[in-house]
Design goal:
The protein is α/β, with parallel strands linked by helices. It has 15 helices and 10 strands.
């Protein structure tokens, strides 16, 4: 007698697509000690071995070819802290996939370690670069090194190297208590850096960052209102990630293409630690422990193929709770059509429960413009 299909598996497949983004941690260590950082092990020098990268590349090779490259996002710690030789060794197993158009590499970096030779390596492997900088010196003051010294000038030197070598880059900024009140100054500065796009992450309670007071919902809503105004008045400026996502949604809905939007499913965003552990749904859940969910680890790619780990995702309690939360959001929240339920990490750290939908993400960042809805790593 054939076993009855699991209703949880059906619910998972309804909400989630095959991975289009893999977040990969080449090292836990970071050469900076940002005061709002949520990573608990950033002072430990755990480093990924080529064996883990090889297993991951083999897993990607088994994915169905969707016609779009899988994004392999190298995200730390500080990824460049592994050194050029080690980083190249981690990229090597993916090279056949990259040349075939199956993979595209990304790195999210604080840019302090970027040199001419780093630029040559990044260009050789066509690595797309994201730089973490929070604005001009006064707004970037919480990005400090391990001795407490400001990193601002070193970040600018790294950006200058990228520009001189013609390497395109995007910018991600954490918006805290100071920046939340001055979006125009922040946007003007970030636009002057020469990046092609800007993303904003409103500071929040997350990971080990639990003692600071994040911006309020009222402040965040005003920030996004002024950001929308500034963007409309500066059409030649770098794209703002969150504004672009909202604009895409509105364009599809207003042009009669709602079906195309509704066919989109969530990315499970497998996050692979330096030792091969895999966490699903949100990179921020990695290196986190919770009484009800344990360490969120779904498996280890040195012990179990990634495809098998993903096939069993619906059995995980935290995935099931997140699916329950999504159902609640869809039934109760007027912004679900755009937001699609936000990130699991935000839901857990802000609400303490992956099933809840009473404190929706828009309450933190303004109706329809929750920066925390956007998938992918945030630093």
């Amino acid at each position: 007698m054939r076993a009855r299909p699991s209703p949880w598996r059906a619910r998972y497949q309804q909400r989630f697509a095959a991975p289009q983004t893999l977040v990969v941690q080449p090292t836990t260590w970071c050469n900076l000690d940002c005061q709002y950082c949520y990573l608990p092990f950033r002072k430990l020098k755990h480093q990924m071995s080529p064996d883990v990268a090889e297993a991951l590349a083999q897993a990607v090779a088994q994915f169905d070819d969707s016609g779009h490259p899988v994004g392999v996002v190298w995200h730390g710690g500080e990824p460049l802290a592994v050194g050029q030789q080690n980083f190249q060794a981690l990229l090597a197993p993916f090279e056949g996939l990259r040349r075939a158009g199956r993979v595209h590499h990304y790195v999210q970096t604080n840019a302090t370690l970027i040199t001419e030779t780093w630029c040559e390596l990044l260009a050789a492997y066509d690595v797309r670069v994201g730089v973490s900088i929070d604005g001009p010196a006064a707004l970037n003051a919480e990005r400090v090194d391990l001795r407490g010294k400001p990193a601002f000038d070193r970040i600018l030197r790294g950006i200058t190297q990228l520009r001189e070598h013609g390497i395109p880059f995007s910018v991600i900024s954490v918006v805290g208590a100071l920046g939340i009140a001055m979006p125009e100054e922040l946007l003007e500065f970030l636009a002057s850096l020469g990046g092609h796009s800007v993303g904003f992450n409103i500071e929040e309670i997350e990971g080990v960052n639990t003692d600071r007071q994040p911006p309020t919902a009222v402040q965040a809503e005003e920030f996004w209102r002024r950001t929308l105004t500034w963007s409309s008045e500066h059409p030649g400026a770098p794209a703002v990630r969150e504004v672009e996502r909202l604009a895409e949604y509105l364009q599809l809905i207003r042009s009669g293409q709602r079906a195309a939007w509704e066919r989109r499913r969530l990315d499970p965003i497998p996050t692979v630690s330096s030792k091969g552990d895999v966490v699903l749904l949100s990179p921020e859940l990695a290196d986190t422990a919770a009484p009800e969910y344990g360490d969120f680890v779904a498996g280890n790619i040195l012990e179990q193929p990634l495809a098998e780990i993903l096939r069993g995702a619906h059995r995980l309690r935290y995935v099931r709770d997140f699916l329950t939360g999504l159902d609640g959001c869809e039934a109760e929240c007027e912004f679900f059509d755009f937001c699609r339920g936000a990130q699991a990490g935000n839901r857990y750290f802000e609400n303490g429960d992956l099933r809840t939908w009473l404190l929706c993400c828009w309450e933190r960042a303004g109706p329809g413009m929750a920066t925390n809805c956007c998938p992918g790593p945030r630093r």
